[in-house]
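Memo to structure team: turn this sequence into structure tokens by end of day. - J.P.
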Amino acid sequence: MTEIEMRRFCYHPEGTLGVLVCNGTRYYTIERPWLDNAPMISCIPVGTYQMGWRESPRFGWTWEVKDVEDRTFVLMHVANYPKDVQGCIGLGKYLMGDCIGVSKSKDAMAAFEEQMMGLDWKLTIKNAMYAALTSY
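Reply from structure team:
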């Protein structure tokens, strides 16, 4: 079982940013702000989650974050801004400099899926204030 950490470094009223490192490749994450785990409008709680494939009417086959308390259908998919996710996690290659967002999301998801295809894995979400620093 492969374990991957997502380190959140920015909780902003508009959205939440994090870093996910997979086999040496650095991705950035975008989520909704923390609103007490409210479905569709909040990022999910810090914790460890099993991941699996799920078919989405909007995104096709994509990763699902399983067993999130009081939540269903939490996905990891292409997204650039908090408004692009409804309680899910978006993946990008870079941070945007002028807003809470990530860029090159399609490229990031394609690369991530290629790395993780066929693997069983867990996602651990942590708070890490300095995670955006490349030496962290």
